[in-house]
Amino acid sequence: MKPARIFVYLIWFNLIIVYISKANEMIVPLKDIAFQNPMLRSIEAEYNIKVPIPNRFIVKDITLHIEIEKSPALLKERSHFSVFWNNKLAYQSVYNPLVDIVTADIKLPTNNLEPFNDLKIRSIHHYCLNCCEFEGSPELWSKIDLENSYIKITYDEKPILQDTLLIRDYILDMKNFNPVKIGMITEDTTDKYLELASKLSGYIGSFIRYRRIFISYHKELPSDRDVFIIGTKSFIKNFLNLQNENFPDIYIIPNPNNITKAVVLISGNSLDQLEKNVNNFIKVKNELFTGRFYQIYQGKNPEIEKFESNNLIPLGKKVYFYDLGYDDIKVSGLFPPPAEIEFNIPVGIFVQGKKKILFHFAYNYGAGAREDSVINIYLNDKYVTSLKMDKKYGVVLKEEDIKIPAYLLVPGKNKLKIEYAMMPPGGGFCISPNLYTLRGTIFSQRSYIQIPELPFWFEMPYLEFFVSDAFPYSINPDLKETAIYLSEKDPNNITALLTLSAYMGTKIGMPFLGLTVTSDVSKLKDKDIIALGKNLPLEFYKNSNLKISDANIDLKSPVLKLVKESLKSKIYGNEEKENKLAKLTYQNALTNQVFYIMAQSPYNNDRTITIITSENIQNLPNAAYRLFLPKYAGTIKGNVTIWDFYINQYFSDKINPTYFIGYMPFFEKLLYEFGYSPTKFILGFLAVVVILSLIIKKLLDIREKRRLGGEI
């Protein structure tokens, strides 16, 4: 029997096994798919969540477990909450005044599911039966616990079929839930193959947004995840036993071990052709991948300048809300949730205090709002100004130019918040107003932000900016000036490389066409460096006060000191510094720790090196994946962070020397130095006094000579 026919029979046998097997079950916390404030206030309020359903799911059952904390003043007779699923009532229950936290398990209908389903939670609040109520009373509230509320989905997975839009709708489906697990196989572990795998991982991260991605490296074909294989055609034929089958450069087949998982083959007849095909796969728009196999002849190589990432807004140009991905924002009711517009500026930008941000605000509001109603504007949760609603009959369209001090900006992600604070007209405490007249719209195609031109000049090192924005590597979004160094070609270290690449892809929002992956130190001279592994060269630690070698650490710092006792060591923090690298006990010579270290490059003063290292290399993949988890990523700060995975605790400090990257105009840099360094300010002041004294003395000497000579 021919091998190709055996392969087909094997596929259908697996299909039968899948359908007679037990269905899968997934629990999705609401905090993973909800982003707004779940506080519900006033007499009536609601909260909306979009629930995605991956295209590969055949959903059998959906259950919502919800927990709501409520005001103890609410009456059972008039207060209740309702759950709507795709605009149909699915559940309703009264609030029990004796219970502070209400829980419910609700079966949601599975017929007519949509790619993104509307889950609406509506809450009605009353604190009296037959009396006057004030709609803005602080007693009228409830709050959804997103942490403990979840959706449980029971499902089967569709088999991979020939006519399916495989890459877009399956492997790179942005509706997949956390964590997204993908496998990667390469023909060998030479630098070039790992570089191609890293670029592909970065592309996957840049495409699948707002998800946690774990990309693992394999030598054998796994059955529990989608897999990308990068290799020559001869290697792939032998690896999958496809000797008699011809296939194009980019080809998709069902996994022989699990027909519901896909195997994407990216191949070529030579390494040069393979590299071209991987780069083309990354460059071509994903919407073109609509079949089972693909042949890309030439992909356009984009020219990318500094800070031209999809995640960053350009400086000095008008950036409309619509271009940031926001539609017109509608607000209504007594306590509408604020509109939050998020935008990223480059981390390495030096914010000058006298500069102004221009916020052009296009909005309206309806008739019925009291004249003391306002619209509050905040930047990064700092109050900026208020706009008064002074038109009794509302306005159809109003536009305002608001100038905001640039020093309110923060490196990386910024948030502009627009809060409608509308009150109904008075008429007596017992007269119920018409709350539905309180409406407004923020027009996304007419509202814009314009950030002024600012110099690129930044103090380093800061691990938190690497975590938040992949900085400084994101200065060149295609990573053309970045090299990732691997000290070991161990599968764990390669998995750390691929997962870290996916993480950087999510932060930069663009694929890494210029990235270098190497184990050759000579290729690092003019690069920003990311070093992964166990036995890293000691020269990498040249500009770091923390050096790791041979299961020992060497620490030189005025803040910390090292006490070594054979295989047991402790790092003690200065008593005045809490929550630093304090009381960290090594049970067995660094075997329970992962180190995140950032310092000035040993080869170039304008470059940075970031080190992720551990004596236990098996924990490096987890160390890279934890960057996706805010709970842990938020603790990685300063320029040295140690994760003790034995006790699952992070210790951070700033112990390495600082340096600056970028360029600052001379006089502005001089003012910066004097403003941020008291010592330099005093020395500068004394120098100016001495110089002025010498000038005045010289002028007085000249005048005295002229007087003695009879000139004056």
Detailed description of the structure:
By secondary structure, this protein is an alpha+beta fold. It has eleven helices and 40 strands. The strands form nine sheets. Strands 29-28-30-37-36-38-39 form a seven-stranded mixed sheet. Helix 3 packs parallel to helix 7. The longest helix is centred in the last third of the chain and has 31 residues, at about 680-710.
Derived structural class: alpha+beta
Number of helices: 11
Could you give a short account of the major beta sheet? 7 strands, mixed
**Overall pLDDT:** 84
Low-confidence stretches: 1-13, 15-21, 287-294, 557-588
Strand content: 25-35%
Q: What's the overall geometry?
A: flat
Largest sheet: spatial strand order: 29-28-30-37-36-38-39
Number of strands: 40
Radius of gyration: 31 Å
Helix content estimate? 10-25%
Terminal-residue CA separation: 120 Å
Write the layout of secondary structure elements.
Elements: H1 3-20, E1 24-29, E2 39-41, E3 44-52, E4 57-70, E5 80-85, E6 88-94, E7 101-108, E8 116-124, E9 141-144, E10 150-157, H2 166-171, E11 180-186, H3 191-207, E12 213-217, E13 226-230, H4 233-240, E14 250-255, E15 258-266, H5 271-283, E16 293-294, E17 318-320, E18 329-332, E19 339-345, E20 356-365, E21 374-379, E22 382-388, E23 395-405, E24 412-421, E25 439-442, E26 448-450, E27 457-460, H6 463-469, E28 482-486, H7 491-508, E29 516-518, E30 528-533, E31 546-549, E32 552-555, E33 561-565, E34 568-572, E35 584-586, E36 593-600, E37 608-614, H8 620-625, H9 630-633, E38 640-644, E39 649-653, E40 659-662, H10 666-676, H11 678-708
Helix pairs in contact: 3-5, 3-7, 10-11
